[in-house]
Amino acid sequence: MSEINESMVPIVNESILSRKNADGKLALMSLEDDENFFKIEGLAIQVWENIDGKCNIKAIVEKVSDTYNLPKKKLEEDTFKFIDDLYKEGIIKFN
After folding, report:
1. Cα–Cα distances in angstroms (integers) from residue 20 to residues 35, 65, 66, in the given order
2. Which pTM value belongs to this model?
3. Banded model confidence at residue 34, pLDDT cuts 50, 70, 90
4. Which of 3, 63, 64, 82 has its Cα between 20 and 30 A from that of 46?
């Protein structure tokens, strides 16, 4: 796959479960691999909650920027890195 760009639409793989813990962190786990799980928090949770298979990355950045007072460039970089990491781990795919 070529480099991720803002027009791409991420969607969560069907085998992934997510659960918000009492500490506010979100746990992600694959039904296919019960030995590995991931915990995310803060900005990453906001991005995760907008990965719905409908919004492209640009729209996700815009939605998250409404909540966080960060420079747009930094927010874009962090969002792209997080989405790229999720893709590489097989947690998301692209429509």
Report:
1. 18, 22, 22
2. 0.91
3. confident
4. 3
